[in-house]
Amino acid sequence: MTYSIIGSGNVGTALARHFARNGIDVAIANTRGPDTLAALAKELGEKIIPKTLQEALKADTVIFAIPFRAYREVARESTNWNGKIVIDAMNPYGVPPEELGGQPSSDLVAAALPGAKVVKAFNQLPAAVLGSAPQQNGGRRVVFVSSNHEDAAIAVVRLAEQLGFAPISLGKIAEGGLLLQLGAPLVLKNLIKQG
Ligand SMILES: NC(=O)c1ccc[n+]([C@@H]2O[C@H](COP(=O)([O-])OP(=O)(O)OC[C@H]3O[C@@H](n4cnc5c(N)ncnc54)[C@H](OP(=O)(O)O)[C@@H]3O)[C@@H](O)[C@H]2O)c1
What we know:
single chain; globular
């Protein structure tokens, strides 16, 4: 399985830290090109591989850590989404409900990526919390996972575990995905202690 993170801002960097800490290779890309990611790669180590956007989109699992409206632009950068897992870590912040047309935001993303298996995950923790150690106060940070594709959801649950989080599967996008949208109560439920 190959991974990439699209976006090197608050969320992209937070996630890159966990890949680096856990020794998992991940490509990372932004709008400005790989040279602008050299300092981050130097800081986090060899597991963080700066790439162009087009190259990063070749990974099996691509994490969208970009402003919500940018998903259409990124969708156009690849013609081959078929079978790819796309992790939607975005929140439709500032997007009026009418623009979403009453749909879960992940469904709009899925519609732009033909054949991709979209999984909503890693969007509910504030970036500073997401980037900190998942083990806190005797518990682990929760990552909620929702997808219409069970195999993809299982793969993302495994990834979240590998990164040190406590994943909780919330079922399909129309159910769990909606719960995960901005302002939903699950944003605050983020630490679990297991006996
Ligand atoms: N901040 C939080 O606490 C938080 C928590 C959970 C979820 N989220 C969600 O996560 C997403 C990212 O938030 P953020 O705070 O990390 O944003 P951010 O700090 O502004 O970073 C956005 C990143 O996306 C990149 N980007 C924008 N358009 C792109 C495009 N067309 N192609 C490739 N890369 C593109 C930017 O590239 P450049 O660097 O080249 O400009 C930048 O690296 C948002 O959807 C947000 O709602 C945020």
